[in-house]
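Anyone? Bumping this.
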Amino acid sequence: MSILVDKNTRVAVQGITGRQGSFHTRLMLEEGTNIVAGVVPGKGGQDFEGIPVYDTMLEAKIAQDIEACIGFVPPRGASQSILDAIDAGVEVIVNVADGIPINDMMTIRETLKGTRSWVIGPNTPGLITPRQCKLGIMPSRAYKPGRIGVMSRSGSLSYEVCDELSKADLGQTSVVGIGGDRIPGTTFAELIPLFESDPETQGIVILGEIGGVAEERAASVIKEIGTKPVVALMGGQSAPPGKAMGHAGAIITQGKGTFQSKMEAFRDAGVEVVHTPKDVVRILLDVL
Amino acid sequence: MNLYEHHAKNVFEQYAIPIPNGRVVLDEGQLQEAYEAIGHDRFGVIKAQVLTGGRGKAGGIKVVDTFEQAHDAFRTIMGMKIKNLTVEKVLVEEKLTIKNEYFISVTIDPEAQLPALLISPKGGMDIEEVAKTYPEALGKYIIAPHSGLPSFAVVDLLQKLNIRRGMWGQLIDTAYKLYKVFSEKEATLIEINPLVETTDGKLIAADGRLNVDDNALFRQTEIATLKSEFKEMVMREKGVDYVDLGEGEVGLLCAGAGMTMLTMDLVQHLGSKAQCFIDMSHGVNPEGFRAALEVLYFDSAVKYILLNMFGGLTRMDEVATALLQAITSMGDKPMKPMIMRIQGTNAEEGQKILKEAGYEVYSELEDTMNRLKKMLEENR
C-alpha cells in the first residue's frame, strides 16, 4: 500500500518533450511509473517514445483518464500548468518548479477549495512510492519499498534520511516533498490522515524546518488522531529571525515559526524530536 | 529581496504616502548639499542604511541640530558595523515634531497564508514586543484574496484600538495605499514604524520597510533593477544561495536548504556558530564554487570552511572536480582550513578525487562533525 499514488496510477507529464521533462520521464519510467500521456501546448498529436502528447490536460484526461500529473514547466508558467490540471480534475498534481510567486500560490490555494485535487509542491523533489510510482526528480537509489511514511519540506534532507532508512532496511511506503515555499499546495497536516489510514505505514517521519506553522498544525492533528509513532527532524534551530534560510518559507516572521514553538508542539503531541538523520533511524528501530 | 529604507520611501512617494524631506548621503559634500536642501531650521536626522532592526540602539540613528553635529554624526555612522553589516550610506532627513507614533503594516500572515493588515497606536516600538506586552494594542485584519481591503474593516480596527476619530481619514488612506503598494509590487512585507503624527496633525512615514517576493522579480522589473545593490541577490544569479548570518566562525558550503540548515544547527551544537550559509544546489560548477569561495575567503570572520553535500541527481565526482578547479583557480590550496563530507551518487569516486588531491574527506556526517569539533578545540 501507499498514499496518493501506486503502480496503477495513470500519470501525465506536463512538458514531456522539454530537456528536463524528457530526462526525468525516462527515470520515472525506470521506477515503474505508469506514464500514459504527455501535455505540451502546441504539440498535441505527436508522441514521446510512444507516449501520446496532448495540447491540454483536459484532452489528456478525456483520452487517458489521467489520475496524477507532474509538471516540468519553468516557474513563470508553472502556476498555469497547475491551474490547467486542477481545471481538468486531475487528483494528484505535482510541481517541482522553484520560483513560483507567492501571489500565484495564493490563487492556486483559493482555486483548490471545493475540488478533490492535491497539489504537491512547488519547490519540491516530488512524490514517490518506491518501485511503483515516482512523480519527481529524487534519486531513486536512496529509496526502497518499506514501512515508513516520510513528509519533508526539504529535498536534500529527505534524500539523506531516506537513504538511511533504506540502509537500515526500514524503507518507505510513500515519500512526499511538500516543498520549501511559503505557501505550499499541500501541508503536513493534510497528509497525516493518509499515512494514518495506510495499513503498511508503521511509522511516520516529518522533516520540517523553521518558518510558518506547518509543524504546529501537524502536531495538533497527530494529537487528535495519531496512533503511529512519529519522529521529527527540523532544520534552522540556530537561524536568526527575519532571514530566509535558502527556502523562501524558512523564515521567522512576527515571532512565528520558531524552532522552539515547533519542538514544543511536537513534544506535546508525543512526537520524538531528534537532531540528526541517524537518530531518526535509531528511534524508529527502537519503537518498531 | 529586502529593500533599504530609502528605496522603500521612494516607492512610498510614488504612491503619495507622505515621507520626510530627505536625501541619501555618501560623502561630506553631499552632506553639505542635504543641509542646504532640507533647510537649517529643520535639520536633521542621520540614519544608517542597513538591513537590520535595532539601528537606533546600536547608535546608527542620530538627531542633530547643527551642521557640525551632523558632520560628527556622519563620520561616526559611516563605516560603522551594525550586527556585522557595514554602513555604506546614510539617509539624512528633516526632523519631525512628534505628537503620536503609530505602527502600520501589510504582510503575509504565517497562519492564514493570506495578506494581513496590522495597525497599532504603539508605534516606534519593536512590534513583536508590542504583540507580547500589549496584545490588545495590535489590530489585525486578514485580507481575503481578490476582494481587496475594504474601508469598513479598517474603521473597525481603528475603533477597537481607540484611535482618535480625527486621525481616521488619514489612517484609512495610508492603509489603502500601503495595500496597493503591497499588491502591485508583490511584496511579502510593507511596514511603517513609526508612522508619525506631527504636532500639526499630519501623518508622515518616518521609517519604511519593503520586502518584495524574490520569485516575482521577473515581472517586477522596476524593483528588480535594485538587485545589484545586494550581495545575496548577485550571488543568487550565479546559482548560489547565500545568507550572511553575521556572528560565527564557520563558513558552510552545502547543497540544499534543508541540509545547509541542519549543518548550521550541528555547528551550534558543538558550541560554535556558522558565519554564513551557502546552499550550492543550483551552482555546483566551477563558477558557482568560485563565487562561494570568494565570499568564504574574504569574509574575515570565517575561520573554517565546512563542506557537506549529499548528491541526489548531482554526481559527486563531478562536484569534486568542479570544486578542485575552483580552488586551484584561486591558489595552490584553500586559504582556510577546510573539512569535506560528500555522500550520495558517485560519492566513492568523488572522495577518491579529493583524497588524491590531498584533502581530508569524510563520508559520515558524525565523523565530519567530530573532526570539526577537534579542530575547534585545538584552536581554543
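Late reply, but here is one note on the structure posted above: Chain A has nine helices and 14 strands.
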